[in-house]
């Protein structure tokens, strides 16, 4: 009888432990992830006692240090609390007063099991080992070093195949690249054509640079060729902006056939295209970029900030024309003299040693998990999003207006982005964009999505407060 009870206790002690995976990061981070998932799923409840570290190490057949580090990480994430000699217990969720649950900012979700600090230490150690440190703190010619451009070619190879390194410029993020391309490829006072819903950075840059953004109608496949033809004649535009894969904000991906139709219209009217493409490498089923089909017509921007980490302020701009590259670099230097050498060197190191690709795979896997979670908690409202998208476009019930919902959500501690933030025309649809990566902790993300689901189910004016 005592032996049977001992076996039951041991099984209960390990009920929250998952299976170690070979490519899911260090085991101590996997153990911390097991604890987080068990709390989210109710397998572990606040107040449950966890095994002593030495006992758990024996049960899992790992080093004591591994368990110690796992418990430390879990405590830092507020998943566990120590009670001295009484042991370690699952913690109750902490309420962070005054802090929004932010579903408004698109950030690539950190992969499960990733130790960013260790990744940074390893990458920077290699950079310092192979680079003169004084050069990392000096001025550099804009456009990136030969090594940085070679890294850009390697990063873009899955989309384009082999590329001439000289056709690539390295920039400090996509926003400065976008502004410089607008300056280089259009005149003040001119029009830029775009879809009715577009990346807010385009709207901000166009306004600051004295250009107007004109909407071009779309259908189920994206921008309509006939509408583009008419807009080219009406506005005399020389520049078209497209974000054709996992579009921000709608997550729509334009089919290959439609891309070719738009290229033909632009060729007839002498219109250059800015192809803003931060997400193609996240979507393993993305059609070929427009720049692959018409390299002379298209300036292609690929930023790592939206698919790896926002602090990695590196974007690659692909321009095949030497004349256009020169104009672009002149404009870029007026905005940003150079990309930060240390960041560029780290990016180059990560691309060459495979860390960037592993990080990309982890972000893609985490995005899939978060899309599944959103589909579950939003009662099927988010089912139309791409499985690897890191945001969702959500059309609202007829009784909600997007601006009103965003304001009510803000008052209840939840941030979302209404369609008006993306509109290039006079009227925006009643929809919101939900970013799935800006809340790192899975339990807090669950709480945010549940709060949003409850809000969507209520009618405006209905209070969720309790009257006592």
From TrEMBL:
One of its GO terms (molecular function) is transaminase activity. Gene3D superfamilies: Aspartate Aminotransferase, domain 1, Type I PLP-dependent aspartate aminotransferase-like (Major domain), Winged helix-like DNA-binding domain superfamily/Winged helix DNA-binding domain. Residues 25-93 form the HTH gntR-type domain. SUPFAM superfamilies: PLP-dependent transferases, Winged helix' DNA-binding domain. It holds the Pfam family GntR. InterPro entries: Aminotransferase_I/II_large, HTH_trans_reg/aminotransferase, PyrdxlP-dep_Trfase, PyrdxlP-dep_Trfase_major, PyrdxlP-dep_Trfase_small, Tscrpt_reg_HTH_GntR, WH-like_DNA-bd_sf, WH_DNA-bd_sf. It comes from the Bacteria. Keywords: Aminotransferase, DNA-binding, Pyridoxal phosphate, Transcription, Transcription regulation, Transferase. In the C-terminal section; belongs to the class-I pyridoxal-phosphate-dependent aminotransferase family. This is Aminotransferase class I/II-fold pyridoxal phosphate-dependent enzyme. It comes from Duganella qianjiadongensis.
